[in-house]
Write a sequence for this structure.
């Protein structure tokens, strides 16, 4: 990065440190924070969408839909996360390739499973074998986000259906007496009012999701934990910047990062709760009304 | 998901035309001097240089991929990459699930490293990396095996006293002991393990295996492989 970094073995003190902290590898580490935040920013809305769909399905008047919704929440909530992160991702990946194989290579005669090998025709590889590594990374991250969203979506679904059930029946009846259809009651009355009941549960899930991001590392995403471990490990002179085991310092950085993230989230969620309670028929909403009066 | 599929489909359509075959090389990136991630964040080491050379000779394009040692064989089998080039010794046990090219590195000496040379390796707690020939060797003996996912952690375990000694390839441990300023010593109890290091391939990839075998034979014949070994492992290294 800096001109004086060309021969690190001649440097010491702060100059050495300034060069050390600006190596290509360290920039990969800094970028991995952005990666984690991006994946969070994608996963959270996706999980919310999964949860909303699940909650809607679970209270649908149409029986098969209700069964699907309830099975989804019950199954995903009941299966240990680690199984999802280790088994499901592989199954999903192979499933996609299996479908591509059926579509693109209908004339392929060899079996797909040969012993422990999973072998589809080269055209069916997702991503394609000749695609650059970045595409493979994005695809891997995509699978990870999908899995996270599926798992957390089941919990969100449960929270949301609880919140939907908590909206006072009288509110819905009022809507019906104005001649609104079931759909209108759902959109105009139930959904806007349920968030205040859902928020405590959702904020819990957000915090858990935030703290579960190091699991990305299990899914092969080169996240902050991967780089902290890689950079912190003792380095011999095979490397340009040899140093002893510094993992402690790198993990301290992660500690600060995650504490900062949870603190910011807490502040934000408290504000959101106050806003959502405004004008609601809840104890919080009532307290706000009295304070204003 | 949908856009992802469309994007990859487009890639596949545009990429296939007239390019040389791409081989994805799977390595661990945590085992200097065999393979490691250098300060620029790229795969480096003996195997990087060798792999690039082999790809050049066979006129294929190589793409380097790193993965955890734990899952390096399953990932090969499910097709996430096409070769394992990660200091993996050829053993009968591994031959049952994957194929190997001929060895590109002679059978290696494994060595013990400890805080002092008074450690009794027949009864001590020995750290080794999971799924290595060294781990199986310790498990078969009388010592207590302590397994870790990465080579770095096995050394750290000795430094902090969790294990009495670490057992790994001598080429990996020797530089660490030499640069520890006397904190770590090599024990005088080297063991020859495995049938040399080869490149791991899926059993069904016979064509690829033949190509790499030919290239390795050529490199052995003209002495360039020995040169490369001496460059990375020092003048005392065992060569062909």
């Amino acid at each position: 990065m800096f001109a004086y970094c060309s021969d690190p073995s001649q440097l010491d003190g702060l100059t050495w440190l300034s060069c050390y902290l600006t190596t290509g590898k360290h920039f990969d580490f800094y970028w991995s924070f952005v990666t984690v935040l991006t994946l969070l920013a994608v996963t959270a809305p996706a999980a919310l969408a999964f949860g909303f769909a699940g909650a809607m399905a679970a209270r649908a008047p149409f029986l098969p839909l209700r069964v699907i919704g309830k099975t989804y929440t019950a199954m995903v909530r009941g299966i240990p996360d680690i199984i999802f992160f280790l088994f499901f991702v592989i199954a999903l990946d192979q499933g996609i390739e299996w479908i591509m194989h059926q579509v693109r290579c209908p004339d392929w005669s060899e079996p797909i499973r040969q012993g422990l090998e999973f072998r589809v025709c080269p055209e069916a590889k997702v991503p394609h074998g000749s695609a650059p590594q970045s595409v493979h990374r994005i695809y891997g991250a995509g699978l990870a986000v999908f899995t996270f969203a599926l798992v957390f979506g089941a919990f969100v679904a449960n929270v949301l259906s609880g919140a939907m059930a908590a909206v006072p029946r009288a509110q819905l009846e009022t809507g019906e007496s104005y001649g609104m259809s079931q759909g209108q009651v759902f959109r105009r009355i139930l959904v806007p009012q349920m968030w205040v009941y859902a928020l405590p549960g959702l904020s819990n899930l957000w915090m858990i999701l935030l703290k579960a991001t190091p699991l990305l590392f299990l899914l092969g995403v080169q996240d902050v934990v991967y780089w902290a471990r890689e950079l912190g490990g003792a380095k011999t002179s095979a490397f340009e910047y040899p140093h002893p085991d510094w993992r402690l310092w790198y993990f301290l950085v992660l500690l600060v990062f995650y504490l900062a993230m949870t603190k910011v989230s807490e502040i934000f969620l408290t504000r959101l709760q106050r806003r959502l309670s405004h004008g609601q028929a809840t104890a919080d909403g009532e307290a706000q009304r009295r304070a204003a009066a | 998901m949908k856009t992802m599929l469309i994007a990859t489909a487009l890639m596949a359509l545009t990429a296939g035309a007239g390019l040389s075959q791409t081989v994805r090389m799977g390595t661990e990136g945590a085992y200097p001097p065999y393979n490691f991630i250098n300060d620029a964040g790229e795969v480096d080491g003996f195997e990087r240089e060798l792999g690039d050379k082999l790809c050049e000779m066979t006129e294929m394009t190589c793409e380097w991929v790193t993965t955890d040692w734990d899952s390096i064989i399953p990932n090969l089998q499910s097709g996430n990459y096409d070769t394992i080039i990660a200091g993996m010794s050829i053993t009968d046990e591994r031959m049952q699930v994957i194929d190997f090219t001929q060895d590109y590195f002679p059978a290696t000496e494994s060595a013990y490293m400890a805080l002092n040379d008074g450690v009794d390796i027949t009864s001590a707690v020995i750290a080794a990396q999971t799924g290595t020939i060294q781990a199986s060797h310790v498990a078969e003996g009388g010592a207590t095996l302590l397994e870790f996912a990465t080579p770095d952690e096995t050394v750290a375990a000795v430094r902090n006293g969790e294990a009495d000694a670490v057992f790994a390839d001598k080429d990996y441990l020797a530089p660490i002991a030499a640069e520890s300023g006397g904190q770590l010593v090599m024990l005088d109890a080297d063991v020859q393990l495995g049938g040399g290091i080869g490149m791991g391939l899926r059993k069904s990839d016979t064509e690829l295996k033949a190509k790499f075998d030919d290239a390795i034979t050529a490199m052995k014949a003209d002495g360039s492989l020995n040169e490369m070994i001496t460059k990375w492992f020092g003048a005392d290294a065992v060569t062909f």
In short: Chain A touches chain B through 48 residues (CB under 8 Å). Residues 9 and 194 of chain A are 62 Å apart (CA to CA).
